[in-house]
Amino acid sequence: MHFKFKKSSSREKRIFYCCIAGIAVFTLFITLCSWHVNREAGPFLYDSFESVPYNDIGLILGISRTDNNVPNEYFDYRIEAAVKLYKKGKVKYLLISGTADPAASYDEIIDMTKALRKRGIPDGVILSDKSGNRTLDSIIRAKELLGLKRFTIISQEDQNMRAQYIARYYGMDTVGFNAMTPDLFISRWEVELHEWLAKVKMMLDLYILKTRPEVSGKNGISVPAACIREKVISNL
């Protein structure tokens, strides 16, 4: 028995080659975005409590306490890093910037505040912004609504890269402290892919779309009186 294979038309070949070229260009683009962000932000990130410089404010980027009803190690490590920075005298105040969904009984601010209290952090040093819906929102709102120009960003290294890049883009003199990253084994590639795409989205937000925070105004911002008296927060 003989089989005859239909020869591809020149049009089909062009479409195939265009698809291959498009995939190659997109892959190169996201690789270059990641390389550029890491090169620019990397020198301002710290892993050591001893070497990270002092700042009045430590900005903790919000995260869910659980992931599919399973305790979230990203949350635990981020809280642990913030507590150690405070207790070692590397920050004086901790600003939690996150989001909430009352309908789903989901509130990053409440969960992170409780976790800090449980570890001995007094209420008088905890600030919060309930409209930190994204990394970009948290950074811009810290500058424009609270008047912060120098602070320490506390998150895992991947997110710190983006946060630090955004802060530098907006002229802030910030550093980032890298909380431990959980050992996720097989699912680690998903995190890497998410971060690569997030960096592309961030570049589009900054340079093309000129994206602004999703929520405007100071609703949801809570600042202790002592922080205002000491003029750590310049816009309140």
In short:
This protein has about 240 residues and is α/β, with parallel strands linked by helices.
Describe the fold and architecture.
- With 236 residues, the protein is an alpha/beta fold.
- Helix content is 46%, strand content 17%.
- It has a single domain, classed as 3-Layer(aba) Sandwich (Rossmann fold).
- The protein has helices at 10-41, 73-87, 108-118, 135-144, 157-169, 188-209, 225-229; strands at 45-46, 55-61, 66-67, 70-71, 91-97, 100-101, 106-107, 126-129, 152-156, 175-179, 221-222.
- The chain has a seven-stranded mixed beta sheet, sandwiched between helices.
- The longest helix has 32 residues, at 10-41.
- It is elongated.
Map the helices and strands.
Layout: H1 10-41, E1 45-46, E2 55-61, E3 66-67, E4 70-71, H2 73-87, E5 91-97, E6 100-101, E7 106-107, H3 108-118, E8 126-129, H4 135-144, E9 152-156, H5 157-169, E10 175-179, H6 188-209, E11 221-222, H7 225-229
Parallel strand pairs: 1-10, 2-5, 2-9, 5-8, 9-10
Antiparallel strand pairs: 3-4, 6-7, 8-11
